[in-house]
Amino acid sequence: MLQARWIRPVLLGMGLLCAGVASADTVYNYTGNNFNQFYGSTGDTTSNFLTITMTLASPLGANLSILSLTNITPISWSASDGTHSLDSNSAGLTTQFFFSTDGVGTITQWIINLSTPSVGLESYSPEATLSDGVQNVIINDVYIDRSVFGVDASSNTGAGVWTVSSTPEPTTWSLTMIPLAVMGWRWRRSRRSAARVL
After folding, report:
1. Which region holds residue 128: left if phi is over 0, alpha if psi is between -120 and 50, else beta?
2. How far, in Å, are 85, 109, 119 from residue 129 at the CA level?
3. Which of 19, 36, 100, 186 could form a disulfide with 109 if both were Cys (CB 3.0 to 4.6 A apart)?
4. H or E stretch including 20?
5. Would you give the distance in Å from CA 146 to the centre of its chain?
6. Domain spans of the chain, in order of start
7. Is 63 exposed, middle or buried (0-12, 13-18, 19+ CB in 10 A)?
8. Angle between helices 170-197 and 4-20 in degrees, nearest 10
9. Contacts of 197 (CB under 8 A, 6+ apart)
10. Intra-chain end-to-end CA distance of the chain, in Å
C-alpha cells in the first residue's frame, strides 16, 4: 500500500515544479485561400495556397499596430504554397512580420513578406494599410524572380485563417516527469517491501 508520508511531499513538489517552469512557446498557423490570379509561370495552380507557421517565445501583445512598423522576430518560421517553400534557415532572406492586434492580442491585420533573390512569399490582410495610405488588394502572393516584374500567383478572395497553439518547452516535460518517476519508484519499492513481509 502507498505510504501517505511520501505521497504528499512528492505531489507538492510536482505542483511547485510545474508552476515554476518557463512558459510555453506560442505557435501561429496561417492558411490562405487558393490562388486565383496568375501572371507568367510560377508552377502554381488554383489548388495552391499559402501556409505560414511561426513560433514566438510569447504571444503577441495587445493593441499592436502595423503603423508602428515594429518587426516581430519569430524563434522560427516556415512558409509554403505547395510548390515553393521558405523557412528561417533559408539563405539570403529578407523578412517582415508586421501585425495589428486587438485588446486581447488576437491578430486583426498583418503584413508578412518573406523573400530570397529567387522566390518570395507574401501575405497581407485585406484591410492592412501603411502610413502611405495605400490599402493592400492582393492577399496572398508568390513570386519566383524578383528581377522580373509580374511573374507571380496570388489570391484576392479574402483573408485566410490564423490559429494559435502552445508548445510546452522540453524543460516543462522533464520537470513534470521527474516527480512521476519518483512516485513510481517509491510505489514499486513499497510493493517489494510488502511482499517480503508476507
Report:
1. beta
2. 26, 9, 24
3. 100
4. helix 4-20
5. 27
6. 1-24+169-198, 25-167
7. exposed
8. 170
9. none
10. 13
What secondary structure, in 3-state letters, does 77-113 show?
Answer: EEEECCCCEEECCCCCCEEEEEEEECCCCCEEEEEEE
Q: What long-range pairs does 130-138 form, CB within 8 A, spacing at least 24?
A: 130/66, 130/67, 130/69, 131/67, 131/69, 136/111, 138/37
Cα separation values, 66 from 5, 40, 119, 168, 182, Å: 57, 31, 24, 29, 50
Look up residue 73 and give its three cell numbers.
Answer: 522576430
The CA–CA distances, whole Å, from 76 to 55, 90, 113, 143, 178 equal 5, 11, 15, 22, 29
DSSP-derived 3-state class of residue 42 = coil
Q: What is the pLDDT along the chain (198 residues), one digit of tens a residue?
A: 445 555 555 555 555 444 444 558 999 999 998 999 888 888 889 999 999 999 999 999 999 998 887 899 999 999 999 889 999 999 889 999 999 999 999 999 898 999 888 888 888 886 655 554 444 455 777 776 545 455 788 888 878 899 999 866 555 445 555 655 656 656 566 666 655 555
Residue with cell 486587438: 102
